[in-house]
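Hi team, as promised in this morning's meeting, here are the two structures we talked about. I've kept the exact order from the run log so nobody has to guess. The first one is mostly here for context; it's the second one we should focus on when we meet again. Sequence first, then the predicted structure tokens.
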Amino acid sequence: MAYKAEYYVHETDKNALKALKAIPGFHQFVKAFMKIWSERQYRVSNMSSCVRMNEKQLSKYYDMLPPICEKLGIDIPELYLQLDVNPNSYTSGDTTPFIVVTSGLFETIPEELIPTVLAHECGHIACHHVLYSTMGNILLGGTASALRNFVPYGSFATMPLEIAFFYWMRCSELSADRAAVLCDGGAEKMSEVCMRLAGFDKDIDALASKDEFMVQAREYRDMIKGSKWDKTLEFLALSNRSHPLMTVRALECEEWSTSEQFNKILDGSYETESSETIEELTEMSLEGEEETEKKPKPKFEFPMFKKKAKDEELEARTGSIPDEIRKYKELLDDGIITEEEFSAKKKQLLGI
């Protein structure tokens, strides 16, 4: 029986995606994206520039996919090998997702860890991340300038979208990591993948300790938790990154693999309290902003900031960014909020 994505998707992944979809301008961006998006263009690029792996080509690696896909309940995606010295793998597409691994990945990690990497990428497919992550990569890449022409206020309005996309993409990696941990039956291999991608190349002629790497991970977490300033520095360092830190990922995997949730999913006895399916969570509406006004919009909030009650009430109001700034200016003039609070809110709305 396949593992249901609803059972293992990370809570921050779900919350970040809901917050992303509530960002003003998101639906206009989706419409613009669907106008220029061509899945076939990606297929042409892969077919012309990469090596496609299948039963007759590099079958040793392709044969790793079917048992993984069976466990996660997905169709077998196309698998490509790309010449690139950087160790990397990624999944893209929409109706027909595909996985690309680089030659640098094979040079960095031992062969027995390749199925773990493939399980991680298949986890993205099972969790329906692929279209959103493709959108995010395009928005955060060179094509963003074309999309900004379709969004009110241009690049000014895409700033919150860019920040929200980066944050969700980092959170989505944690869900994909869990898929790999489930396929492996434990976190040991995923933790080693993190350690090797952090710096321990397989050609380094020395012994490395995964246990010591996990000690390092815990020390880092304790350091960040113990200082608000360090937490702020971490956030600033991660604000334009699509992946979380390797030690953070390794520790998340290890701790989740010892949880009751993991053990129950593994033995088939887990039942989630939420009735929301992964399809409902990731559903993409093209109807426009007005459709979402029927439901209260979750606010996009970075983990380090705790908003005051009056800010929560004020942020519930929707409208353009200039209108929001005017509303807060009126509150400042009436003496309801301070100059410092107004300045902080203005910077937040402007994404600076």
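And here is the second protein, the one for discussion:
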Amino acid sequence: MALPLALAIGSTALSFMGSMSAAKAAKREAALQRRQLQQQIEGAQLAALQQHNARMQNLAIFKSTNESLAGVSGRDIGSDRSFKAIQEKANRQMATETDRAFLQSLQEQGKLSLAQSMASERGRNLSRAYRFQAFGTLFSGAMKAQPLMPNTAGQPNYGFRPSQMGLQR
């Protein structure tokens, strides 16, 4: 009977350790996903800043080109209404484009942040499930090993003997 009992205990221990190891692995995987998504958030912020800088540079080039054309054509930059209208229109368009790009950037960062939170929650849930599985394995193993214990004769032993309670077999 010692060999079956040892095998039952060994099997339970291995299953328990495997489930606990899987719980730790789930937590590590979730942490890696969070870090990866954080890097994507930071990359999206940098890309948005670079795109904004490029738009502002293009606006400055456009304005400089207009000023050069006005100067070459002999128009007075300060009093020419059509020149001012062109500049104001360019400023309005740039403001609208900048606002749209900023909102798009915020939406992208929000999606990545949500994915980051969901990865954390999935990792916690999976880890918790593996821990429950591990402890369920312990209980199941105890139930399977109990009949193999010496002096049980297939009777459940709850830590006391019937003779201790004044009962006879």
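Starting points for discussion:
The helical segments are 2-72, 81-145.
The chain has one domain: 2-155.
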